[in-house]
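Input/output pair, single chain:
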Amino acid sequence: MDLSDRDLAMTEASTPQAAILDDGTYIGVARGRQDTLDVIPGLPSPEFDPAQTPVVRLIPLGDTWQLQTGFRWTVDDEKLRRFAPQVLPRGELTGDRTVIRIAVVGTPHVTVEAIETSTADDRTILAETDSSGFPPYSAVISVQVGKPIALAMESALSGSTGRIVVAYHADVAPGIALNRSLVARAARLGITYTKQHNGLSVTARADLARLGSKSHFEER
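Output:
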Protein backbone atom coordinates (compact mmCIF):
# COMPACT_ATOMS: atom_id res chain seq x y z
CA MET A 1 0.00 0.00 0.00
CA ASP A 2 1.10 3.57 -0.61
CA LEU A 3 2.28 5.66 2.29
CA SER A 4 -0.74 6.92 4.20
CA ASP A 5 -1.21 10.27 5.95
CA ARG A 6 -0.66 8.47 9.27
CA ASP A 7 2.60 6.93 8.08
CA LEU A 8 3.82 10.29 6.86
CA ALA A 9 2.78 12.07 10.02
CA MET A 10 4.80 9.57 12.06
CA THR A 11 7.95 10.22 10.03
CA GLU A 12 7.54 13.98 9.55
CA ALA A 13 9.17 14.99 12.83
CA SER A 14 12.04 12.52 12.52
CA THR A 15 12.85 13.00 8.83
CA PRO A 16 16.54 13.83 8.38
CA GLN A 17 17.64 16.71 6.24
CA ALA A 18 16.79 15.37 2.79
CA ALA A 19 15.71 16.35 -0.72
CA ILE A 20 14.39 14.92 -3.99
CA LEU A 21 16.46 16.20 -6.91
CA ASP A 22 15.13 17.08 -10.37
CA ASP A 23 15.87 13.58 -11.69
CA GLY A 24 14.06 11.96 -8.75
CA THR A 25 17.19 11.04 -6.81
CA TYR A 26 16.69 11.00 -3.04
CA ILE A 27 19.53 12.43 -0.96
CA GLY A 28 19.58 12.61 2.81
CA VAL A 29 22.16 13.15 5.51
CA ALA A 30 22.77 9.75 7.12
CA ARG A 31 21.71 9.46 10.74
CA GLY A 32 24.54 9.00 13.20
CA ARG A 33 27.23 9.05 10.51
CA GLN A 34 29.58 11.96 9.97
CA ASP A 35 29.86 13.36 6.44
CA THR A 36 27.74 10.56 4.93
CA LEU A 37 24.97 10.85 2.35
CA ASP A 38 22.22 8.26 1.83
CA VAL A 39 21.10 8.11 -1.80
CA ILE A 40 18.28 6.35 -3.67
CA PRO A 41 18.62 6.52 -7.47
CA GLY A 42 15.97 8.48 -9.33
CA LEU A 43 14.70 7.79 -12.84
CA PRO A 44 16.34 4.96 -14.82
CA SER A 45 18.32 5.71 -17.96
CA PRO A 46 19.26 3.73 -21.07
CA GLU A 47 22.56 2.02 -21.66
CA PHE A 48 24.59 3.82 -24.33
CA ASP A 49 26.86 2.39 -26.99
CA PRO A 50 30.34 3.88 -27.73
CA ALA A 51 28.70 6.44 -30.03
CA GLN A 52 26.49 7.56 -27.11
CA THR A 53 23.35 6.22 -28.78
CA PRO A 54 20.79 4.52 -26.51
CA VAL A 55 21.01 0.75 -26.84
CA VAL A 56 17.48 0.04 -28.04
CA ARG A 57 17.03 -2.08 -31.16
CA LEU A 58 14.12 -3.78 -32.89
CA ILE A 59 15.28 -6.53 -35.24
CA PRO A 60 12.65 -7.91 -37.67
CA LEU A 61 12.18 -11.70 -37.55
CA GLY A 62 9.31 -12.27 -39.93
CA ASP A 63 6.06 -11.81 -38.03
CA THR A 64 7.85 -10.82 -34.82
CA TRP A 65 10.61 -8.47 -33.77
CA GLN A 66 13.50 -9.06 -31.38
CA LEU A 67 13.68 -6.27 -28.83
CA GLN A 68 17.19 -5.71 -27.47
CA THR A 69 17.76 -2.96 -24.95
CA GLY A 70 19.60 -2.11 -21.79
CA PHE A 71 19.04 0.17 -18.82
CA ARG A 72 20.76 1.37 -15.68
CA TRP A 73 19.65 2.92 -12.39
CA THR A 74 22.49 4.94 -11.05
CA VAL A 75 23.72 8.15 -9.51
CA ASP A 76 26.50 10.56 -10.42
CA ASP A 77 28.80 10.42 -7.38
CA GLU A 78 30.88 13.40 -8.48
CA LYS A 79 27.83 15.57 -9.09
CA LEU A 80 26.29 14.62 -5.74
CA ARG A 81 29.47 15.42 -3.86
CA ARG A 82 29.63 18.78 -5.61
CA PHE A 83 26.02 19.86 -5.10
CA ALA A 84 24.79 18.08 -1.96
CA PRO A 85 26.40 20.62 0.42
CA GLN A 86 24.47 23.34 -1.44
CA VAL A 87 21.17 21.44 -1.45
CA LEU A 88 21.59 20.33 2.17
CA PRO A 89 23.53 23.27 3.62
CA ARG A 90 22.93 22.27 7.24
CA GLY A 91 24.06 18.72 6.70
CA GLU A 92 27.74 19.26 7.52
CA LEU A 93 28.79 17.62 4.26
CA THR A 94 32.30 18.34 3.04
CA GLY A 95 31.67 17.40 -0.58
CA ASP A 96 34.84 15.77 -1.91
CA ARG A 97 35.25 13.57 1.18
CA THR A 98 31.54 12.81 1.65
CA VAL A 99 30.76 9.09 1.75
CA ILE A 100 27.86 8.13 -0.54
CA ARG A 101 25.78 5.13 0.51
CA ILE A 102 23.22 3.68 -1.92
CA ALA A 103 20.14 3.12 0.27
CA VAL A 104 18.84 0.11 -1.65
CA VAL A 105 18.92 -3.49 -0.45
CA GLY A 106 18.70 -6.67 -2.46
CA THR A 107 18.57 -6.87 -6.24
CA PRO A 108 16.33 -4.34 -8.02
CA HIS A 109 13.88 -5.87 -10.51
CA VAL A 110 13.37 -4.30 -13.93
CA THR A 111 10.29 -4.32 -16.14
CA VAL A 112 9.49 -2.90 -19.56
CA GLU A 113 5.79 -2.09 -19.75
CA ALA A 114 3.34 -1.10 -22.49
CA ILE A 115 0.66 1.40 -21.47
CA GLU A 116 -2.69 0.11 -22.67
CA THR A 117 -4.95 3.08 -21.91
CA SER A 118 -4.74 6.86 -21.96
CA THR A 119 -4.84 6.94 -18.17
CA ALA A 120 -1.51 5.05 -17.93
CA ASP A 121 -2.98 2.88 -15.16
CA ASP A 122 -3.37 -0.26 -17.29
CA ARG A 123 0.06 -1.65 -18.12
CA THR A 124 1.21 -4.90 -19.70
CA ILE A 125 4.65 -6.21 -18.78
CA LEU A 126 6.56 -6.93 -22.00
CA ALA A 127 9.76 -8.12 -20.39
CA GLU A 128 11.30 -8.37 -16.94
CA THR A 129 14.62 -9.29 -15.42
CA ASP A 130 16.71 -8.76 -12.33
CA SER A 131 19.34 -6.07 -12.51
CA SER A 132 23.02 -6.68 -11.88
CA GLY A 133 22.39 -6.29 -8.14
CA PHE A 134 24.94 -3.52 -7.59
CA PRO A 135 25.36 0.05 -8.94
CA PRO A 136 24.76 1.00 -11.68
CA TYR A 137 22.17 -1.83 -11.53
CA SER A 138 22.54 -2.65 -15.23
CA ALA A 139 19.82 -4.70 -16.91
CA VAL A 140 19.76 -6.28 -20.37
CA ILE A 141 16.44 -7.06 -22.04
CA SER A 142 16.10 -9.38 -25.04
CA VAL A 143 12.61 -10.55 -25.94
CA GLN A 144 10.45 -11.19 -29.00
CA VAL A 145 7.44 -8.92 -29.47
CA GLY A 146 4.56 -8.75 -31.95
CA LYS A 147 3.81 -6.00 -34.45
CA PRO A 148 1.58 -3.84 -32.16
CA ILE A 149 4.26 -3.69 -29.49
CA ALA A 150 7.01 -3.11 -32.06
CA LEU A 151 5.06 -0.16 -33.46
CA ALA A 152 4.41 1.18 -29.97
CA MET A 153 8.09 0.88 -29.18
CA GLU A 154 9.13 2.66 -32.36
CA SER A 155 6.56 5.37 -31.65
CA ALA A 156 7.90 5.85 -28.14
CA LEU A 157 11.47 6.04 -29.35
CA SER A 158 10.39 8.63 -31.91
CA GLY A 159 9.13 10.85 -29.11
CA SER A 160 5.53 9.76 -28.41
CA THR A 161 4.98 9.67 -24.66
CA GLY A 162 2.60 7.37 -22.82
CA ARG A 163 3.41 4.24 -24.84
CA ILE A 164 6.30 2.35 -23.22
CA VAL A 165 7.87 2.74 -19.78
CA VAL A 166 10.81 1.12 -18.02
CA ALA A 167 10.57 0.58 -14.27
CA TYR A 168 12.97 -0.32 -11.48
CA HIS A 169 11.47 -1.92 -8.36
CA ALA A 170 13.56 -2.16 -5.18
CA ASP A 171 13.49 -2.32 -1.40
CA VAL A 172 14.72 0.70 0.52
CA ALA A 173 17.37 0.31 3.20
CA PRO A 174 16.19 0.67 6.82
CA GLY A 175 16.40 4.10 8.41
CA ILE A 176 15.30 6.14 5.38
CA ALA A 177 12.46 8.47 6.38
CA LEU A 178 10.31 10.42 3.93
CA ASN A 179 7.96 13.26 4.69
CA ARG A 180 4.83 14.25 2.80
CA SER A 181 6.48 16.81 0.54
CA LEU A 182 9.30 14.46 -0.50
CA VAL A 183 6.87 11.65 -1.35
CA ALA A 184 4.69 14.05 -3.37
CA ARG A 185 7.65 15.48 -5.28
CA ALA A 186 8.93 11.99 -6.10
CA ALA A 187 5.46 10.94 -7.31
CA ARG A 188 5.25 13.90 -9.67
CA LEU A 189 8.48 12.69 -11.27
CA GLY A 190 7.25 9.09 -11.65
CA ILE A 191 8.70 7.56 -8.49
CA THR A 192 6.44 5.85 -5.96
CA TYR A 193 7.35 4.91 -2.41
CA THR A 194 5.23 2.14 -0.91
CA LYS A 195 4.96 0.86 2.65
CA GLN A 196 5.67 -2.86 3.02
CA HIS A 197 5.39 -5.03 6.13
CA ASN A 198 9.17 -4.92 6.54
CA GLY A 199 9.85 -1.34 5.44
CA LEU A 200 9.66 0.73 2.27
CA SER A 201 9.90 -0.15 -1.40
CA VAL A 202 10.40 2.16 -4.35
CA THR A 203 9.31 1.96 -7.99
CA ALA A 204 10.93 4.37 -10.44
CA ARG A 205 9.20 4.57 -13.82
CA ALA A 206 10.51 6.49 -16.82
CA ASP A 207 8.79 7.03 -20.15
CA LEU A 208 10.92 5.57 -22.91
CA ALA A 209 10.18 8.62 -25.08
CA ARG A 210 12.11 10.78 -22.60
CA LEU A 211 15.17 8.57 -22.29
CA GLY A 212 17.02 9.18 -25.52
CA SER A 213 16.97 9.56 -29.28
CA LYS A 214 15.32 7.32 -31.87
CA SER A 215 16.09 3.66 -32.05
CA HIS A 216 16.47 2.02 -35.40
CA PHE A 217 14.95 -0.98 -37.15
CA GLU A 218 17.73 -3.28 -38.31
CA GLU A 219 17.33 -4.77 -41.74
CA ARG A 220 18.28 -8.38 -42.33
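The two ends are 47 Å apart (CA to CA). The first helix runs from residue 5 to 12.
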